[in-house]
């Protein structure tokens, strides 16, 4: 561990503590300001003087810092993504405020200023985020100047080594510099690099490396206390989620396809039901307005129904607001053979996607209202009813057509381990601009690494996509 990493990891604790106290003080004095007093006079300062209030705030700040530590916000490395950090800050502060509210309720004490709690909540999130942003920027500046970087040896050749070399050279803020790339694994070359440059980390980039070569790397790392990482082979990739079992006296490791087996699946379903129900309630004015626009713009049904492949490849009928002229809609309910012929014609001439999927810009089959609702993803809102019925999830792999699924390779079948989603890893990482193979890799990564935090991050990114994505139409 670099001294700079230890320093920046340690200094975040007092910075967060000061930011939380500053947020509390700012909320207190804002409530006593002339503007706030003019709206409603404050009387709590007589029952809770500033000194006593700050003592309580210090206790709450320590609790929140403990929650930050549980969330991993004091990890020493700088490679954490900004959105991940902001999400964890928001979660830690939210839980801390909820504990304060719970304490007030259980102690049967009446705190006379809800304004202070809400304002301190907002200020805490803003001040902590700003403090961490400044620390991160200072750390990045130092890393770009070569201070505190990790000196890395890439052991093995091939595309993984080349890709890592490019990434480390392009993103100096990650804190890595490649001091050597060894095609042949032996103790002497490693020792020479260590004596000349020093080594902080070895990354084995060849999944087909022999056991003898791997042992050399492991022994060298162990002797000089060097961090060791490696690119997994195919079996190890599938063994991302393992559970220990014992049958009699025989120890067994069970490969789990996804963390969404068992309680994870139950948790995700509860969130889907609650989220879709609330979404339908809050978005009902928008849903009604869209129905009126579609009905006025063109003749035909309001909803477009299409068969898609769901979990375990079980077909289901997906719901969308109709965005095309009804005579061009493909399916037994709609335009029939002429619509199918038009679809095949466009697919053969104007498909912008690689792989089995079809996508084109300026599709002549789309109505003027259809372009608008596609741009803002309004056409997909009826899928909330698919989620409520249990056919889809709020987040998951994109649901595809059966004829597209027929063209999948064997490894793509893992996409059907869980329910398809309204949004997901692929959609927030490039949407229609992604090649199919890249989309499949992202969705499989989501399946193998699902967590509640990942879902929260993806939901936040999905909202951001609405305002900046250029691939919707």
From TrEMBL:
Residues annotated as domain Bacterial sugar transferase: 268-467
Primary subcellular site in the record, as a coarse category:
membrane
Q: Does the keyword Lyase apply?
A: no
Q: One MF term from GO for this chain?
A: phosphotransferase activity, for other substituted phosphate groups
Kindly state which keywords UniProt assigns to this record, in alphabetical order.
Membrane, Transferase, Transmembrane, Transmembrane helix
> Which superkingdom does the taxonomy of this entry point to?
Bacteria
Task: From the record, give the transmembrane residue ranges.
Answer: 7-30, 50-74, 86-106, 112-135, 270-291
Q: Name one GO cellular component term.
A: membrane
Pfam families in UniProt: Bac_transf, CoA_binding_3
Q: PANTHER family recorded for this chain?
A: COLANIC BIOSYNTHESIS UDP-GLUCOSE LIPID CARRIER TRANSFERASE, UNDECAPRENYL-PHOSPHATE N-ACETYLGALACTOSAMINYL 1-PHOSPHATE TRANSFERASE-RELATED
Q: What is this protein called?
A: Bacterial sugar transferase domain-containing protein
- Give the organism, scientific name: Candidatus Andersenbacteria bacterium RIFCSPHIGHO2_12_FULL_45_11
């Amino acid at each position: 561990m670099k001294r700079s990493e230890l320093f920046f990891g340690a200094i975040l604790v007092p910075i967060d503590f000061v930011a939380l106290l500053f947020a509390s003080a700012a909320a207190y004095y804002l409530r006593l300001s002339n503007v706030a007093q003019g709206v409603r006079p404050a009387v709590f300062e007589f029952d809770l003087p500033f000194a006593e209030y700050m003592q309580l705030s210090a206790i709450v700040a320590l609790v929140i810092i403990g929650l930050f530590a549980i969330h991993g916000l004091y990890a020493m490395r700088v490679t954490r993504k900004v959105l991940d950090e902001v999400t964890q800050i928001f979660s830690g502060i939210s839980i801390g405020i909820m504990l304060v509210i719970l304490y007030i309720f259980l102690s049967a004490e009446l705190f006379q200023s809800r304004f202070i709690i809400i304002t301190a909540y907002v200020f805490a999130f803003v001040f902590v985020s700003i403090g961490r942003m400044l620390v991160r920027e200072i750390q990045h500046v130092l890393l770009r100047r070569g201070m505190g970087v990790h000196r890395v040896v890439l052991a093995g050749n091939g595309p993984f080594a080349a890709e890592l070399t490019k990434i480390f050279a392009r993103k100096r803020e990650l804190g890595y510099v490649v001091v050597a790339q060894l095609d042949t694994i032996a103790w002497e070359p490693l020792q020479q690099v260590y004596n000349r440059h020093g080594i902080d980390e070895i990354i084995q980039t060849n999944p087909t490396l022999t056991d003898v070569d791997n042992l050399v790397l492991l022994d060298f790392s162990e002797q000089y206390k060097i961090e060791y990482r490696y690119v997994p082979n195919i079996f190890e990739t599938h063994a991302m989620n393992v559970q220990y079992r014992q049958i009699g006296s025989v120890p067994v490791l069970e490969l789990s396809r996804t963390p969404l087996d068992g309680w994870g699946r139950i948790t995700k379903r509860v969130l889907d039901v609650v989220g879709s129900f609330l979404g339908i309630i809050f978005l009902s004015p928008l849903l009604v307005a869209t129905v009126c626009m579609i009905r006025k713009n063109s003749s035909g049904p309001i909803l477009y129904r299409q068969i898609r492949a769901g979990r375990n490849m079980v077909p289901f009928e997906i719901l969308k607001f109709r965005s095309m002229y009804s005579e061009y809609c493909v399916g037994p309910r709609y335009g029939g053979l002429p619509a199918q012929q038009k679809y095949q014609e466009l697919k053969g001439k104007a498909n912008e996607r690689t792989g089995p999927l079809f996508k084109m810009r300026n599709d002549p089959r789309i109505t003027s209202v259809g372009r608008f609702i596609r741009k803002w993803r309004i056409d997909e809102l009826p899928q909330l009813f698919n989620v409520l019925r249990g056919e889809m999830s709020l987040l998951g792999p994109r649901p595809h057509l059966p004829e597209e699924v027929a063209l999948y390779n064997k490894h793509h079948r893992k996409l059907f381990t869980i329910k398809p989603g309204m949004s997901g890893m692929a959609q927030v990482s490039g949407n229609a601009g992604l090649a199919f193979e890249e989309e499949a890799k992202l969705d499989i990564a989501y399946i193998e690494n699902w967590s509640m935090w990942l879902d929260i991050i993806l939901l936040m990114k999905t909202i951001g996509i609405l305002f900046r994505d250029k691939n919707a139409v």
